[in-house]
TrEMBL record:
SUPFAM superfamilies: S-adenosyl-L-methionine-dependent methyltransferases
Keywords, in A-Z order: Methyltransferase, Transferase
Boundaries of every Methyltransferase type domain copy: 58-152
Keyword Magnesium: no
Xref: Pfam families: Methyltransf_12
Protein name (record): Class I SAM-dependent methyltransferase
Source species, domain of life: Bacteria
Translocase recorded as keyword: no
One Gene Ontology biological process: methylation
Molecular function per GO: methyltransferase activity
Amino acid sequence: MTHSAQPEPTNFVAAFSDPEAVARYADGPPRFVPGFEALHRMTGILLAEHAPADASILVLGAGGGLELRALAEAHHGWTFVGVDPAREMLRQAERTLGSLMDRVTLVEGTIDDAPDGPFDAATCLLTLHFLDPAAREDTVRAIHRRLKPGAPFVAAHGSFPQDDSRSRWIARYEAYAVASGADRDQAAKARSAVEAHLHTLAPETDAAVLRAGGFRDVELFFAAFTWRGWIGRACQDKG
């Protein structure tokens, strides 16, 4: 789930419990995330490099179901477990998925509420930036524990330099949203929320979190203004 549904720079999760904000959710990500649809397409391609045709996929931060729909439409043999803490977002996912729900199980909660698996692959898109560094590494480790050895994991979220250029990058985030059709006030509020509340890390730190969480062969595959995405594979040693 991305933070573009956020109406005020206060509590991100609360926005995902607001039915009106959730109903508008699908309009937000393409305006705030450059290459949003391409990110989903690339995610499917990367997972398919190692996941079988009948793969079981764990989707953490399933949000309104946009990622689930894209993956399910592209890979007809895959089944999914989608996990999200916001009940309204899961209801929106059901509406988004429609008949595709026969291959999807939705779980309200965090990674600790997800089935043990083991899964053939996992994704966590536009979600980890909500967690502080310690909670982020714990979550990555919990994903790793639920994967088969060698299984691919794709993560993508807000990640950009945290040095003196941080404000400049956040300004670019806002400018892109406005250029893509977002309301100026909405974009300004989103910018304030990012500055005040998101736990953004530098890209090299984010990659290190994935490695510390148990993933090898971590590669950057997506970089678009304030967003980064990585592919990694679960280490063979699951102990």
